[in-house]
Every structure is written in structure tokens, then in C-alpha cells.
Amino acid sequence: MKRIATTTIDDLGRLSFPSEIRSMLGWPTGSQIDVFYADGNTAVLQLTKEIVNNMCNICEKRERLITIKGINICKKCAGTIGKLSVPRLAT
């Protein structure tokens, strides 16, 4: 495993992850994280699958989702995609 950050457990038992790390991992603010015990001093953290399956694959928002061929896209991102100009292929 590769260490990407070090954080401290506070007096209430909470961990804080810097926004750069959450962004790199694709963990939006308010995410639920599953914690798995591996062995000894090792635990594995993973974004809860229900959340992964219920957020926009582009901006990670969780509101107003539509699913196209198994990909979740929020209405705002879908609107942005619809406004893109696509070059025409030569015939």
C-alpha cells in the first residue's frame, strides 16, 4: 500500500481528510465510508457502495440524477453535455 496522507484522530474519535485527498479519492463531503478490519494495525476505508451508485459520475452531486447506459449524470451536467458542439465528420 502507498501512504498518501497522515491525519490525527481527535478527542472525539474523528478523522479529518484534507479536501485534496477526498478529491483524489472521489469522496465528496458528507460521504459515508465503510471501514474494514484487515489484520493487526491495518484497516481499509472504502466509499459506501450505495453512495457511489447514487452520484453523478462527472460532478459527484447526488440530486436530480438520470442514468444513461449505466452511467449516472445529474441534470446540470446532462444539460452542459447537450450544449457542446460536436464536429461533423467528413462524408
Q: Estimate the strand proportion.
A: 15-25%
| Averaged pLDDT | 82
N-to-C CA distance: 51 Å
- Taken in chain order, the helices and strands follow as HEEHEEH
- Strands, count: 4
Count structural domains. 2
* Uncertain stretches of 5 or more adjacent residues: none
Largest beta-sheet characterization: 2 strands, antiparallel
What structural class results from the helix and strand content? alpha+beta
Explain what this protein looks like in three dimensions:
By secondary structure, the protein is α+β, with helices and mostly antiparallel strands. The protein folds into 2 domains: 1-48, Ribbon (Pemi-like Protein 1, Chain: D), CATH 2.10.260; 54-84, no CATH class. It has helices at residues 19-25, 49-52, 75-83; strands at residues 33-39, 42-47, 65-68, 71-74. Strands 1-2 form a two-stranded antiparallel sheet. The N and C termini lie far apart (51 Å).
